[in-house]
Design goal:
The chain is of the alpha+beta class. The chain has two domains: 3-55 and 282-313, no CATH class; 59-278, no CATH class. The protein has helices spanning 62-77, 79-84, 89-105, 109-115, 120-125, 128-146, 152-179, 214-229, 235-253, 259-277, 299-302, and strands at residues 3-6, 9-12, 22-28, 31-38, 41-46, 53-57, 280-284, 312-313. The protein has a three-stranded antiparallel beta sheet with strand order 1-2-8, with no helix packed on it. The protein has a three-stranded antiparallel beta sheet with strand order 3-4-5, with no helix packed on it.
Length: 314
């Protein structure tokens, strides 16, 4: 990826040049002109490539929601193909190692919470209904405030979080319909590993299984979007992830989920929000970046991408 400069504007060009080549676009007599410099040689040619773009988040709106979800689902369900190409093996192995350890402990966790009343008041306050209400309240409050022109960035945050939740819940519904894991509150005898799996007889479209936790995957999805887009305010990530952690813990104390269900929901929600919904793409210069006007510098980094290339407006 290289820089394009035109009349004081520095942006990112796409696709990147190969073999150390760099392009400098300028205007001469009103027409775009490109100079290509490679290893001490330079040549000039009329610009015939598409308009330059810059790294940014994908534009979001109500009309773009469904196409965006379909694009995300393709990336989510084709993830195994990336593993076959040798990518992402290290984090995947770490995930399954931790998940395996929690699965081994699952038979012992519900027993304690079933016989204690220490969390009675906590469970009353952070019930499943109240947790769902809180999540929707946060999202639609951001939409209501974002309707004012001065808070367009907050309105975009609502649509990113809504897209992340819908992406996550689609994955959750499919997995629950396949694994049909019985919830801890519905199982009394946990004889072996398969005692809780493939036992729920509910309809597949109702998400009958327990794995992963739907509340946790939604809470982390919302928290991640807000934490990343407002991470220049240190209190936003703390509150976002703190509330998500409380919701996740309540799913265990309420005997609605095993710890492994909650852990899987947290990982899935975080990965989908950060690396699928908030992934950086190249958009035309005329499009918004999805970042605050004073923070468009370093758009790729703010999107959560490991890339260090930056676009800046002089």
């Amino acid at each position: 990826m290289c820089r394009l400069e035109s009349r004081g504007v520095s942006v990112l060009s796409w696709p990147p040049q190969k073999h150390g080549a760099s392009r400098l676009i300028s205007k001469s007599n009103g027409f775009p002109h490109v100079s290509i410099h490679t290893e001490g040689r330079s040549s000039s040619a009329p610009e015939t490539s598409p308009p330059p773009g810059r790294a940014a988040l994908r534009p979001v709106s109500l009309l773009r929601l469904l196409p965006g979800i379909l694009q995300d689902q393709k990336q989510i369900w084709l993830f195994p193909l990336q593993l076959l190409q040798g990518k992402h093996w290290k984090p995947t192995l770490i995930f399954f190692a931790i998940l395996g350890g929690l699965l081994v402990l699952d038979p012992y966790d519900p027993s304690y919470f079933r016989h204690t009343r220490a969390f009675h008041e906590f469970n009353r306050i952070v019930s499943g209904h109240n947790a769902t209400t809180l999540m929707w309240l946060v999202m639609f409050s951001s939409l209501a405030i974002g309707l004012f022109p001065a808070f367009k960035y907050l309105r975009q945050t609502f649509f990113y979080s809504l897209q992340a939740v819908m992406d996550s819940e689609i994955l959750t519904q499919v997995l629950k319909g396949l694994d049909r894991r019985v919830r801890p509150q519905d199982i009394r005898t946990y004889d072996h590993f398969l005692s809780s799996w493939f036992m729920d007889k509910g309809a597949w479209y109702s998400g009958p299984g327990s794995f992963p936790s739907g509340h946790m995957i939604a809470a982390i999805s919302i928290a991640t979007v807000f934490a990343i887009r407002y991470r220049h305010y240190s209190w936003v990530p703390r509150i976002s992830y703190g509330l998500a952690a409380i919701i996740g813990f309540s799913r265990i104390t309420l005997l609605s989920h095993f710890p492994s269900d909650v852990f899987a929901g947290a990982v899935f929600g975080y990965v989908i929000a950060r690396y699928v919904v908030l992934r950086a793409v190249i958009v035309p210069i005329s499009e918004g970046t999805g970042f605050p006007p004073d923070r468009e510098t370093g758009a790729v980094e703010a999107a959560g991408s490991p890339a260090q290339t930056q676009s800046s407006i002089a």
